[in-house]
Amino acid sequence: MKWILVALLASACAPHSPEAVGDKFVDYYLVEMDQGRAIALASGLARDMLERELRDVSSIRKQMGYMPADARPEIYYRRTGVRDDGGGKVLTYDVTVKLKQDVSHKSAQVAVRREGGAWKVVFYKLSDG
After folding, report:
1. Is the dihedral of CA 59, 65, 66, 72 positive or negative?
2. Nearest to 28 by CA among 114, 100, 116, 20
3. From edge to edge, which strands make up the β-sheet containing 88-99?
């Protein structure tokens, strides 16, 4: 009985639309810089990319330890578009990165598809400009 309640609560908190999945992925991946949480929303190539990143940064994170809040950039994003893509959607975002006085702008694309009854991120790309 207890596991049913946990499953119901988990599914109630999960994003259900392709836009909600894309936005949550961008929150986890860019804003929180947490590939571990982002990977739960990913499959296929996107999951492979995140697993590779986690392997690549694990030793760096161990060496650095805790990163003070003032050393992390502030990340802001705005979804600027959604287009259908053969059974899935591609979401585009404008991303602003602020680190102290420096401000840069990037664009992000997140592709989502329905897999196993849920929307999953299958590809993502971050570009300058």
Report:
1. negative
2. 20
3. 74-85, 88-99, 102-115, 118-128
What dihedral angle (degrees, nearest 10) is formed by the CA atoms of 31, 67, 122, 113?
A: -40
97-127 pLDDT, tens digit each: 998 889 999 999 999 999 989 999 999 999 9
The reported pLDDT for the residue numbered 76 is 95
- CB neighbours (10 Å) of residue 121? 31
Question: Distance between CA 75 and CA 80 in Å, rounded?
Answer: 16
Backbone torsion region of residue 53, taken as left when φ is above 0, otherwise alpha when ψ lies between -120 and 50, otherwise beta: alpha
Q: What is the pLDDT of residues 86-103, one digit of tens each?
A: 889 999 999 999 988 899
Domains of the chain: 14-128 (3.10.450.50)
Count how many residues are written for the chain. Answer: 129
Strand (E) positions, 1-129? 74-85, 88-99, 102-115, 118-128
